[in-house]
Each structure stands twice: as C-alpha cells, then as structure tokens.
Amino acid sequence: MNAKIILTGAMALLLAPVMAMAQTDNSQGGVGAVSSSSISVKAGGKTGIVHGHANNPIGAPYVGTNVFATTDGSPKSAVATAVTDANGDYTMKVPEGRYVIVLQEKNPKEASKEIDDSGTVQVVEKGDLVANFDGTREAYVSKLSPEMRKQAEELKAKNAAILADQAKVKNLNAILIEERADRKAGNIDQATQLATQITQGKPNEPIGWFELGADQIAAKKYSDAIPNLQKAEDLSKAATKPNVEVEAAALADLGEAYANSKQMPQAAQAYDQAAKIDPGGAYTYYSNESILQLRLGNIDEAATAANNAITADPKKPMAYYLKGQALIQKAGADSAGKVTVPPGCVEAYQKYLELAPEGDHADEVSQILQGIGATIPNSYHAKKK
User: Do 103 and 212 fall within a single domain?
Assistant: First the structure.
C-alpha cells in the first residue's frame, strides 16, 4: 500500500442535497382565512411558548423562513416573530391570547406571501404550544395547482431516491472501515469479501475497486489485483471531478502488482503516471518503487527509480541510499584486486551521509565507503555504542 485514502475523498462525494420546494400564490392560506372578530388578546405580561417544525410538500425543511403570531393573519399585527433554523424548527415567546401562527415566505423583491398557517390557537400563561406546518398533508397539497402538485411529487420521488442512496453510502462506508481494519489485521479473506460488497453496492465508484486490488496485493494475488486497480484508476479518471488521491494510489499499487508479476515496463509506467498526476507524492512513489525493485532483485529498475526519487526531491537522503544499494550490487574488482563500483555509487553514498550524518544507515554506508577506499564526508561521526 502506497497511500491512504480518506473516506471524504471518495464515498462521501456520492451524497446530494435535498431540493427545496418553490412557492407560488397558490401556496397561500394552508388552513383558510381567519376572521379578526374571532381573535382576542388578554392584557398583561403573561406569556407562553409556541414552537414547531415546518416542512414543504416534499418533506424537506423550510430554512430561514419567517414565523409570526398575529391577531388577524397580517404581519402588521404580529405580536411575536421567529425564523426557522437549518432543521426547519422555530421557537418564540407569545403573549397569552388567541392567535394565528403564520409561516411566511421571504421575498425581498416583493411583498412576502403566506405559505401556511395554523388556524386559531390559544396561548396560555407558561403554556407550551406546538404549531407545526406540514406541507405534505392532504389539506395543504390539495390547494396547490396541478403543476405544483406534479412538481412536488417529482421532487418527493427524487428526494426519496437521494435518501435511499445516502443510507446505502452510510452502510458502505461502515463496511469500508471494517474492510481496512481486517486488511491491517491480516484477515485478508474477510477484507476481500467486504471490498467485493462495496464494488457490488457502488460499481461505478473507484474506491471499492481500489480496496479490492489492495487486498489482493496483500494476498499476493497480483494477477487478480491488476484489472481491479486498473478499473479504479479508469473510473477515477473518468469522473466529473477526478479523485487524484484514489487515482494515484491505484496507479502506485498497480505498479507494485506489475513488478511482482515481472512486467517491468508496465510497472515503471504505472509509477510514472502516479507521480505525474500527484507530483507532491512523486518522491514517495519512486522511493517505494526502488525498495520493491531491490527486494525483487531488479537492480537496474531500482537504480532508475531511485534517480527519479532524487529528481523529485534532492534534499531527502533515503533515495541516495537506495541508489547506492542498487549500484553496489554491480561491484567488481580490477586486475590488481581493487574493488570497483559503477559510476554514481560512491557519490550517492557520500550524499546520503552529507544529508543524514546520523541517519539509520549512516554507519552501514560509512563502512561500505571505507571498504571500497572512498572518502567519508566530514559531517559523519560514528554513533556511540
């Protein structure tokens, strides 16, 4: 594995916002007109609490919408006001008396329109009155125009589909977390099964195919991993907003799978592509490639990858060590028995010591340089035992 993929860089992108319901003149007066003669207000400072929830005909909350208590249905007679929050909820303190609670559309360009009202309600001292505005109820929907009812039904169906998809994504994200934990713990078969579930649940999302390929690499099933990692890369690249992190990680793992399958040109190409689309990770990709190629005994490929890592970030020491380790494999002896090494080997080791005089490999490198009769940089000091 060459990179971490965070959940928000992948599956969280599946979620979509809930659409809001537009209002027209036909939305006015949800319960009906209220006669001012039926309203009375008791004098004094006695108050009660009125609170509730407001949602539109597709069940989505009305956000930032005015609510007021009035004696005659007019905002000019309002005795208390509130604004719905992000959840469509509101609370206000209202003087004791009989009122209509009105939900009012905000429209800065013209006079605001009434969306719905509660009908006549009684507020008592220290009382707790619930006045909800449910746009999905038949009494409200029946007052909408045929066009508005059709729009409401279409949006409601879309909203239901979105909520169903959100539930699926939530479940798949939980599976994703479990799958990664299983791979980390060495439970590769279980991890592979879980990754397969993700690909089946969201076949057009690259993350599932990447995870499946990573599990197959962990199981050393490199030929199985290659098509899945390639699919992850293809899906990510084709997305409206390509996920560079997923794509680069898939390519890096693809390089590892190709290398272990002894397909060296394809491996080098995959690592090069990963570095190209994610330049910030180029040093890591090439260093990992060099380590892998050294482990596989591919000396020339390891040296090339180390050079690429040095080009990506010449100030980091590890790539110089890897280059030296690759080139030292080609050491020989001349006719006089003196050790000879390929060009660049000594320089790579010396540069490592200059950059990391107390690095993990410093003593090892100094001994190698001493053994081949090369100069040891003054910056190096042997570690005290």
Answer: no
- Last residue of a domain, which of 114, 147, 180? 147
pLDDT digits (tens, 9 = 90+) for 213-255: 999 999 999 999 999 999 999 999 888 888 888 999 999 999 9
Within this chain, do residues 32 and 92 fall inside the same structural domain, yes or no?
A: yes
Q: Which domain holds residue 201?
A: 165-371
Q: Is the pLDDT of residue 15 over 50?
A: no
pLDDT tens for 309-365 read 999 999 999 999 999 999 999 988 878 778 889 999 999 999 999 999 989 999 999
CATH number at residue 284: 1.25.40.10
Evaluate whether residue 153 is within a structural domain.
Answer: no
Is 9 a member of any domain? no
pTM: 0.60
User: What secondary structure, in 3-state letters, does 189-228 show?
Assistant: HHHHHHHHHHHHHCCCCHHHHHHHHHHHHHCCCHHHHHHH
Is residue 382 in some structural domain? no
Total count of domains within the chain: 2
**Using one digit for the tens of pLDDT, what is the confidence trace for 24-63?**
333 333 333 333 334 444 445 789 999 999 988 877 888 9
Distance, CA of 149 to CA of 156 (rounded, Å): 10
Q: Nearest-CA neighbor of 323 among 338, 340, 301?
A: 301
Structural domain includes residue 13:
no
